[in-house]
Structures are given as structure tokens and as C-alpha cells.
Amino acid sequence: MITLKSATVERWTLDNAFTIARGSKTDVDLVVCEVTDGTHIGRGEGTPIYYEGETAELCVEAIEMRTKQNRPISREDLLESMMEGAARNALDSALWDLESKASGKPLWQLAGLPEPKPLVTAFTISLGEPEQMQADAAKAVEAGYQLLKVKLNGENDMARLAAVHAGAPGARIIADANESWDEIDILSMAIGTAQYGVELIEQPVSAGFEDELMAVETPVPFCADESCHTSEDLDRVEGCFGVVNIKLDKTGGLTEALNLMEKARMRDLKTMVGTMLCTSLGAAPAFALAQKADWVDLDAPALLKKDREGGFTYSGGMIHPPA
């Protein structure tokens, strides 16, 4: 019988301010969950989706309420009994970890995924003045990163992209608008981004306004982030986006993320696997899934002032699994 051992809130400090169109952060609150079968302990981590109204404290409450119900604590049952989000992700991840420890099999094998290998990951360039973003891009490339995720906000974005390109002229670029292009000419923006090495434009419009992208013949593909949480969203985003960003805090765990990955590919949609801000504990199941992704955005542990011991390492622009 599986029971909840603990659900707690942890605060982790970032190495530098993380700034996007919706605001800036210097630390992140996480929910950490532990489950046990009486012999082994499984651990999972979730990052509250603040733009959906989640907080770490509310996630703890949701986990405690779910585990007090008279029904099995299993990954399959969570899909029926909990809403997607960080609470379900933390609990789902803990159950995967518990099964891995109890069976002696690694997560990737249990999930039917390829054996993990180092992956090229994007590195985030926070929103700021063009001069600062240029300096940050140059610093990232000097550290070995060649795929940069550039945060934009719908104001002076071409100058920001030009500055990043100047600071890192050979880098590949993902432009992340975080829903900020509702009031601008998206086609002109998309055409303009191509000259700066942009290969993907993430979430240009607000979730719910995906139809605005339907008639845009863009030279750079659009990627759904806020618009696509689970596989149930695919009907709405297909035809508007060519790529979906799979984040376990949105899907509510690896169990549904695997389903979303499979169904997206059946529709000929490409995928990116990313995370919210998190430690290596939260990034671990995403890293397993990312082995099948077209783009990888798993720099979150590298953005912390200090990660958990024995976590991922970063070198040569790649994320490397723990030894």
C-alpha cells in the first residue's frame, strides 16, 4: 500500500533575476512530495504555475487532500482524480521514482524511453534592455551554449533580437514572447525574426486567441506553451502551431506528458520539452522525456544559485545526466 510520507514547500534562490513579459523573480517556491510503500521512498517536485493561480502552499493542500481519499494512490488513478498542474506533477513524479526504486529499473526503462544521453539545451536570456541582453548572450555563448531562448515582451523586440544576435552571431535562437504579441503585426514580426537566426517563436499570442495564428504563413514555426497543457488541448492548437512545448507541471506529470508526446507526434506536430524554474529533482523526469524531443529547454537547474547535490551538470551547451 502506497501512502504519502510528506509534502512540503521549499524556496530556492536564483543566480540572477529571471525576467519575462509577466514579471521578474529572484527565487522560486517548489512543492516536494514523498511517497512510500513501507520500504522505499519516492520523491517528486513540482513548480506552481503562477499564471494559473497555483501556489506551493495550495499544491501541498491538494496533495494532502488527494492522498486522504479512499482510493488507490497510483499514476493511473491520478489522471482521473486530480486536475493537471504542479501538485499532480509532484505526486506523479514521486510515484515514478518509487516504482523505479522498488523495481530496480531506471525511470527511462519503465517509461519505454530511450536510454538517456547528454542533450543540447536552450539557455534563457532574460528580458532586459538590448545592451544587457547582448552581454548576457555573449556570456552564454562563452560558457558553451549555442541555443538561446530569448525572452520578449512585445516592445522593442526586434532591437532585443538584433542585440542578442550581435552578442552571439552564430547562436540558434528561440524567441519566447510569453503571450505578448496580441496587439502587433505577427506576420511582420515573424518575418523579421528570421534574419537573426530565430528558428522557433514560442507563444506569440495569449492562450485562447490561437485562431489569430491560423492564417499566418510564417517562415518560422510557432510553438504552443501556455496554449497547450495536456493532450486534450491538441484539437484547439492544431493548425495554429507547428510545435508544442511539453512541461510536466502543465501536464500534471510524466504520465500525461508521455500521452501528449505520442498524440502530438501522431498529428505531425514537433515537440519541445521544457520546465518551469526547478531543481534537478524536478527536471529529471523531463530529461527522460526530452530524449524524444525536437528541442530541449532544460536549463532551469543551471539558473539556480545552487542546485541539489548530485544533480545535472552543464558543459558545452549540453545537459548531462548525473554520474
From TrEMBL:
The enzyme's E.C. designation: 5.1.1.-
Ligand binding (Mg(2+)): 176, 202, 225
Keyword Transferase tagged: no
Cleaved signal peptide residues: none
Cofactor note: Binds 1 Mg(2+) ion per subunit.
Top-level taxonomic group: Bacteria
Pfam assignment, any one: MR_MLE_N
Domain Mandelate racemase/muconate lactonizing enzyme C-terminal as annotated: residue spans: 130-223
Keyword Hydrolase attached: no
UniProt cross-references to InterPro entries, sorted A to Z: DgoD-like (IPR034593), Dipeptide_epimerase (IPR034603), Enolase-like_C_sf (IPR036849), Enolase-like_N (IPR029017), Enolase_C-like (IPR029065), Mandelate_racemase_C (IPR013342), Mandelate_racemase_N_dom (IPR013341)
Xref: CDD domains: L-Ala-DL-Glu_epimerase
Top EC class of this enzyme: isomerase
Active site location: 151 (proton acceptor), 247 (proton acceptor)
GO MF assignments: metal ion binding; racemase and epimerase activity, acting on amino acids and derivatives
Alphabetized PANTHER family for the sequence: D-GALACTONATE DEHYDRATASE-RELATED, ENOLASE SUPERFAMILY MEMBER DDB_G0284701
Family designation: Belongs to the mandelate racemase/muconate lactonizing enzyme family.
Protein's name in the database: Dipeptide epimerase
Lineage: Bacteria, Pseudomonadati, Pseudomonadota, Alphaproteobacteria, Sphingomonadales
